[in-house]
Amino acid sequence: MVFFTVDQVRSVMDKQTNIRNISVIAHVDHGKTTLTDNLLAKGGLLNIENSRCGLDRGRIEIEKGITINSTAVTLLFEHQSASGDKESHLVNLIDSPGHVDFSSEVTAALRLTDGALVVVDLVEGQCVQTETVLRQAIFENVKPILMINKVDRGIFELKMSAEDIYQACARVIESINVTISVETPEDSKLPPRTVDPTNGSVMFGSGLQGWGFSIPQMARVYAKKFDLDEENLRKRLWGDNFFHIKKKKWLKRIPEDPQEAKFVKRGFNYFIMKPILDLTQAFLDEDTEKCDNLVKKLGIVLSKEEVGEKKGKQLLKVVLKNWLEVGTCLVDGIITHLPSPAEAQRYRCVNLYEGPQDDEAATAIRTCNRDGPVMVYVSKMVPIGDTGRYHALARVFSGVLETGTKVRIYGSRYVPGETQDLFVKKIQGVNVAMGSRMESVGRVPAGSVCFISGVDQFLVKSGTITTCETAHCIARMKHMVAPIVKVAISPKKPGDLPKLVTGLQRLQRADPLVECTKEDTGEHIIAASGELHMEVLLRDLQELYAKIELTTSNPVVTYKETVTEQSAKPAFTVSPNHHNRLYGVAEPLSAEFVAAVERGAFNPRDSGASKTLVKEWGWDKDEAKKIWTFGPEESGPNVFLETTKGVQYMNEVKDSAVAAFQWVSQGGALAEEELRGVKFSIIDATLHADSIHRGGGQIIPATRRCIMQAEITAVPRLVEPIFMVDVVCPPEQVGSVYSLLQSRRGMVVDETYISAQRTRVNAYLPVAESFGFSTAIRAATSGTAFAQCSFDHWETLNSDPLDPTTAAGKLVASIRERKGLNSKAPVLADFM
Fold first, then answer.
1. What per-residue confidence (pLDDT) applies to 3?
2. CB atoms within 10 A of CB 358
């Protein structure tokens, strides 16, 4: 039974201070969806006793038991403020995937939210994907709080003592805070984001068993029971604070005398974990008398319906859930420690908005002004069954979005002042998700997350919606993963080709990361982030979008091209009409700068990009001013400069030259793979005085050939993607893991002891060697090892790609042959 109505939701939407927009993020299988179920149950949207994974609705999600798509839901909770008054709070929650292949869904969720509930398994600790999603949250200026989940695993599986549990929790908190500190920029003006158990930004418990607590919550219980100062007690229940049971006083250290030390216990262990462990042991032993005494002592009251015929572990679950309900604990942490939209947008605006920070739109976003112009960001499209239509999952940053509002819709290719990818339309509907149902609300004021109907015809994946004619775009999302695995597909029946094309268009909209392209050979290509992502995409395409049988090729890897030295001599080309001459050189960009561009630390679109290059990256001031563009798509890690002196008409041919650079940056000279880390400069030119002889038809092919010549003469190399593979296995299987990694060109970078039963091995593994790795490692370790691969970096292949006898040369030949090109490596004469 739902505990709130649509009218109540509309009412709280008008109180910005009572709204919380949050994402739930974690490593795979750390229990975030189970915790989300507890919040749904508390809001009345799920009967947790009869169903689980209330937000996992796809058949593949249910079969595999993992979250694949980010799913949003609107909840309403009553929360008691510090003054003691109860107020309704609106929580727009987005449950995101934990598997690294679906990191793009996490990015889409974080863009719309202001806070993140980070879930970590007590036993596993912080894993690779935990660090990745936390990094994404910090990049998006999203404030984290921490839930240490699966404490019951430590109690039941590993038989951990109270001190063992404390130390494991302390390690998790320390590792999370280290990641937050390292990833937060040094010049950040934001308040500290580290988590602290004593203020309640860290919670502990078990989503599966339904119980959880925070230190302030337990301090309130004991302060009320023994009439103590709650603030003082809160600080005593964590850290090196020890309670002397006989003397009833607090100490800062354990006495050296063994006889005295017997009566001294850590505050967290004695007041919090001891009652939980005593209850657990009593119920497992089925000691009825002891159970009754403990339940009475803790003030727990159970109804006959709750007890029923349960006993042992089942009854323990009911008791702990009644005493320490995890939903109550989570709601308290979310509302107390995560910011409201009005608070968060003050510091998020600088990263959210691409235009000037003092214009009308930016001011409205910063102040979360509902009386200002409408500014909405759509982060993903959500399919509506198999109708072929989509709801747009969006956040209203300013103004009021209403059904029937006439808006300007900016697609991904929109440039302010131009009309490309700009549509002026009316909003057909505005909805919120209440469990599996969409409820129309008619209007959504600034600060809330909603679903918009009728814009799917104009937006492919994401975009900006506004009523302000001078507004710039809200910044495009920067994904932490790249579509590096490709598969060629075709219909088994040639007559189904139109259905395939339609299915690919629908798939392109539904997934934030997938790239669907058509090669010159006529092949349709799907690019995904990894094996599992590709498996899900192909299954969705076949069963949901195209509904036809498919033929697929073996997966191949996306490589990139780069240069390692400055061109040996300037490249020289003439235009087809022989009236224009261009001279240019290529040279490598620094690895640090390339990485900064790729992860979004440096944005080429910023108005102050030239000053940043000089101040932070040591570029020459005059050279920084002569940058024409970055590529590909004006934001990639390649730079195009015009450094000529005294050459006429250069500004008139700029657009044509830039178009050629964008073309080459998407497909270089070696194998038409994307360029990475290349700086190309036009150093001299001779242009015809008559503009009719230096049009795009003359300048574009000449510039393209000049850039390719420069690449060939600058010691070109292929760059391959590298995974970070995270393997958890028993200590006796570490040797088998090392052997398998070595056979696949892997390089171990770290080995961490977790417990007597588990060891973690981190290694670099080329993506080309990763296909079938999970299956191989299970076979090599008799099914005892679990591996997860996440994209980490790009690495240059050292062998010469122009020599057909080298590994890189053979790779170039195979890529060119697959693309329908001449399999022979290119030579300088090909671009003269």
1. 66
2. 8
Chain-centroid distance, C-alpha 794: 19
* Radius of gyration in angstroms for the set of CA atoms belonging to the chain, rounded to a whole number: 29
Question: pLDDT of 48-71, one tens digit each?
Answer: 666 555 565 566 777 777 788 888
Give 25-59 as a 3 state SS string: EECCCCCHHHHHHHHHHHCCCCCCCCCCCCCCCCH
pLDDT in tens, 273-299: 998 998 888 888 888 888 888 888 877
* Sequence-ordered list of residues with C-beta below 8 angstroms from that of 602, at least 6 positions apart, any chain: 593, 596, 609, 612, 616, 617
What is the b/e burial string over 762-790, where b = at least 16 CB atoms within 10 angstroms of the residue's CB? bbbbbbbbbbebbeebeebbeebbbbbbb
Q: Report the alpha-carbon distance of residue 627 to residue 85 in Å, rounded.
A: 58
DSSP tag of 543 = I
- Exposure of 401 by Cβ count < 10 A (0-12 exposed, 13-18 middle, 19+ buried)? buried
Alpha-carbon distance of 245 to 145, in angstroms, equals: 33
CA distances from 384 to 391, 393, 728 (A): 7, 12, 39
Taking all residues of the chain, what is their mean pLDDT, rounded to a whole number? 88
Range with the poorest average pLDDT among 292-301, 318-327, 709-718? 292-301
Q: What local confidence, expressed as pLDDT, does residue 373 receive?
A: 95
Q: What is the dihedral of CA 142, 146, 147, 148, to 10 degrees?
A: 140
CA separation, residue 393 to residues 195, 248, 456 (Å) = 29, 56, 11
Looking at residue 256, its amino acid is: E
Q: E strands of 161-279, at which residues? A: 202-206, 211-214, 242-244, 249-251, 264-266
Sign of the alpha-carbon dihedral angle for 70, 75, 77, 81? positive
Contact 393, 449 (CB under 8 A): yes
The pLDDT of 504-515, averaged and rounded, is: 89
Positive or negative: CA dihedral 147, 152, 153, 158: positive
Backbone angles phi, psi at 222, to 5 degrees: -75, -35
